[in-house]
Design brief:
The chain has 393 residues and is mostly helical. The chain contains 16 helices and 4 strands. Strand 1, helix 3 and strand 2 form a beta-alpha-beta unit.
Length: 393
């Protein structure tokens, strides 16, 4: 089929020819995103960390201390990998990254327990790694509390209390808690949900800046406009549409990894999630268009795209709540499409929120998608037409 010059289809054909002749295009739009998706999925596929190595310094050598150590080792997330003779050896293992925690069992612990004293089991853990630190610290506390409660129940039973009464006295107030939306505390649901869209927006922005900016660097902008029949709308739409579709398909691959491969629960409407992914791609292409239009320099626009996109996850409100950020963090989060995308995605995917509650965030995403065409197209036409803007790296 012959495609005539002078429209969107002509520009699409031109762009596909350029992409086919330049392996870099395929690498940045397909290969690297899929590799990134695969790496992050493989890293977090387990969902919950298992058998994190810890060190134990047992100075009591009693039946009770041995029971405590066995219980620590039986926890799915912990592995007593090192037995040390003093605290300094254990701290050195933590400093070297070989152990995530040190549990120090004091001398005469068993004797003090049955003498109605309160010996202290001390735990040191590396909380610089917040995931492993939180898991290790929580489970050490759980084991010690369980052993302590068991001793208390047995002591009361020896005094003639029934086991039911003893348990009631040990825990007079019962707490029933339910983890909503991620009941298994799976880090896979959290990490894959956030990291894959984050990686995707980096590739979207860098690719969009490059494919537009390279027309200026190589001085081919006028030819692009001629292929579009002089229409900057047709020129930019035809140039970006193939990449829009590729990145949208990658967004659906991300959804398939999360919901089908990892088995994350889907509580809401997949159609809303799919629509938000499409607008998410358009929003980042829109911002990339503005960067090229404003700075008319490929290298500078690429650098600014990386600066804008790379730290976005930290300000999107999923790793640290926006409400707790200082004023700059709050302000920066408002200029990130990712923030509004996650409000829609998490609301639909995990919380099962009514669709109407997601519409304001989806509307802001649409506003981001409109900014580029509204603000950048007249300037881009000027850049593509005027030779004095060409050749800048």
């Amino acid at each position: 089929m012959t495609i005539r010059r002078g429209g969107v289809w002509s520009v699409i054909a031109r762009e596909l020819g350029r992409a086919a002749s330049r392996p870099l295009y395929v690498v940045t739009t397909i290969v690297l995103p899929l590799v990134a998706f695969g790496v992050f999925t493989a890293v977090f596929e387990a969902g919950v960390p298992r058998k994190l190595p810890i060190a134990v310094c047992d100075k009591d050598f009693s039946a009770l201390s041995r029971k405590l150590v066995r219980m620590l080792d039986s926890m799915p997330t912990l592995k007593v990998a090192y037995r040390v003779t003093d605290a300094e050896q254990g701290k050195e293992l933590i400093a070297q990254g070989k152990a995530y925690a040190l549990v120090l069992v004091p001398e005469h612990m068993e004797r003090d327990v049955y003498a109605a004293k309160a010996p202290k089991v001390v735990g040191y853990y590396n909380n610089q790694y917040m995931v492993s630190g939180g898991v290790v610290g929580r489970d050490i506390l759980t084991v010690v509390a369980t052993v302590s409660a068991g001793i208390n129940v047995k002591t009361r039973q020896k005094k003639g209390e029934s086991i039911e009464a003893a348990i009631e006295h040990v825990s007079p107030i019962q707490v029933e808690h339910h983890g909503l939306f991620n009941p298994y505390s799976s880090y896979a649901y959290y990490a894959v949900t956030t990291f894959l869209p984050n990686m995707l927006q980096i590739f979207i922005m860098v690719t969009t800046v490059f494919v537009l900016g390279v027309e200026l660097r190589e001085g081919t902008g006028r030819d692009l406009l001629e292929r579009a029949g002089g229409s900057i709308v047709a020129a930019v739409a035809g140039k970006l549409l193939p990449y829009t579709l590729v990145f949208f398909l990658l967004g659906n691959v991300s959804n398939a990894i999360l919901f089908l491969y990892l088995g994350a629960p889907l509580a809401g409407d997949i159609r809303v999630i799919t629509a938000s992914y499409f607008v998410y791609v358009l929003a980042h292409q829109s911002i990339a268009m503005i960067l090229v239009a404003v700075f008319a320099n490929l290298r500078l626009a690429l650098s600014l795209a990386a600066i804008y996109a790379s730290p976005a996850l930290a300000f999107a409100g999923v790793t640290f709540p926006c409400v707790g950020m200082p004023w700059f963090g709050k302000a920066w989060s408002h200029i990130l499409p990712m923030r509004y995308f996650f409000e829609v995605f998490i609301g639909q995917a995990f919380r099962g929120a009514p669709v109407h509650t997601c519409l304001p965030s989806l509307g802001v995403l649409c506003l981001f998608a409109m900014l580029g065409p509204l603000l950048a197209l007249p300037r881009l036409k000027q850049l593509f037409s005027n030779e004095r803007y060409w050749g800048h790296v």
